[in-house]
Amino acid sequence: MRTSQKLRKVFGVKTQKILALCLALLLFLQLPASFLNTADVFAVSQADIDEQQDKLDELNTKKNDLEAELEALEEQKASNLEKKELLDEQVSLTQEQIDTTNEQITQYEGLIADKELEIQDLEKQEAKQLELYKERVRAMEERGSISYYSILFGASSFSDLLSRLDFINEIMEYDEMIYNQLIEAREATQNAKAELEATKAELETKKSELETLKAELDTQISEVSSIITAIQSDITEYENLVNEAEEEANAVQEQINSLSEQLKAQNEPANNAASGGSSDGTTTPVYSGDGTYIWPTASKYITSPYGNRLHPILGYYRYHSGIDIGGGGGNPVMAAAAGTVIISQWSDSYGYYVVIDHGNSTTLYAHMSRLNVSVGQYVNQGDTVGNVGSTGLSTGNHLHFEISINDSRIDPLTQFDSSTYIKAW
Fold first, then answer.
1. Model pTM?
2. What is the pLDDT of residue 23?
3. Which of 106-110, 126-130, 285-289, 337-341 has the highest mean pLDDT?
4. Is the pLDDT of residue 316 over 70?
5. Which residues on neighbouring strands pair with residue 343, listed in sequence order?
6. Which of 121, 151, 326, 422 could form a disulfide with 303 if both were Cys (CB 3.0 to 4.6 A apart)?
7. First-to-last CA distance in the chain?
């Protein structure tokens, strides 16, 4: 036996290694590309989600600091204006947390979709390995152990016996390799399924956190509304607040004019082309600017008109830059015309507001409870851009609606038939 082992080491090991490598290589080449390199094709990674979590942690720190400042103001009996300023900032931070959490949820959903594709590939590979293993088992059952003995006893010489031993050994090693690869494929599938379940659990946690944040936002907006009501009891303080809001509205209009000019220059090549196509084969929306608008929300009641109107709190005439469409809290706010969103953000006076550029005009939608669109997004006429609310300088659910043509505000009602609305002021 010792002589046989020595001879095998001398004559058989090199051939044995070559055959084993060839068998392994052939099996490796049979593996699908998706199984060999599944990680590279997935667009979402845990690092992306962790980055958003770091942002959330930073926002939480800022909110905690704000809460401490608010508590300090309560103890100092500070003015309502100071409190409102901090509450507005708190609302803005909470909305940012909501946006970031929504982004995380989107990333988790992408990660889950990727993982499900990975599992499909792994299950296919596991099934292939199982079938290959079954074929080997069937072959062994058909041959039986006696066939190995017949191979050995059929040797014509001692060197032939050693060769046959090497051959049998290589077959056994190949069978063992097939079995091990089946086990590895099965473990890979099980691990991927476990990771999928863990990611789904994390997604549900994030959805729960999102609902908590939304409830927190509603509470904060109610606090702001209460502060404004308290401010109204002090005419001087309220007048200061209205003046600040007017200054902010003028600044917003300047920003709208600037952004509209930038967008016009950006879209000029497409506007000059009859087809709206560009040289690179993509299509850029061409704005007709025909002045046709649809009413932006379900309510028809105008509670405050455009222009110089008798201010309901101050008791004297002040300029109003748009119209107020009352009631309908939570109702969708629709794009009055197709165009590109150039502003979608929070403002102390406008609350959550959106501005859409239509080519030679813009529309503004303010005091909304939430934002449904982002800057740069193209919207069609009738698309939902937000929901009616009472954010910013507002004491009740309504939509503040503005239209500007050639960089100047106009009375929105001039663009609608009188049957479209009901005057309630």
1. 0.55
2. 41
3. 337-341
4. no
5. 355
6. 326
7. 110
Q: Where are the domains of the chain?
A: 2-231, 235-423
274 or 62, greater pLDDT? 62
Q: How many residues does the chain have?
A: 425
pLDDT at residue number 179: 83
Distance CA 94, CA 425 (A): 35
CB 175 within 8 A of CB 148: no
Neighbouring CB atoms inside 10 A of 289's CB total: 15
- The string of pLDDT tens digits covering residues 93-144 is 888 888 889 889 999 999 999 999 999 999 998 888 888 878 877 776 666 5
171 Cβ partners below 8 Å, 6+ apart? none
Cα dihedral: 418, 421, 424, 425 (round 10): -60
d(CA 11, CA 16): 9
CA 403 to chain centre: 30
DSSP calls for 263-330? HHHHHHHHHHSSS-B-TTS-B------------SSS--EEEE-SEEEE-TTT-SEEEESSEEEE--TT
Strands 422-423 vs 301-304: parallel, antiparallel or unpaired: parallel
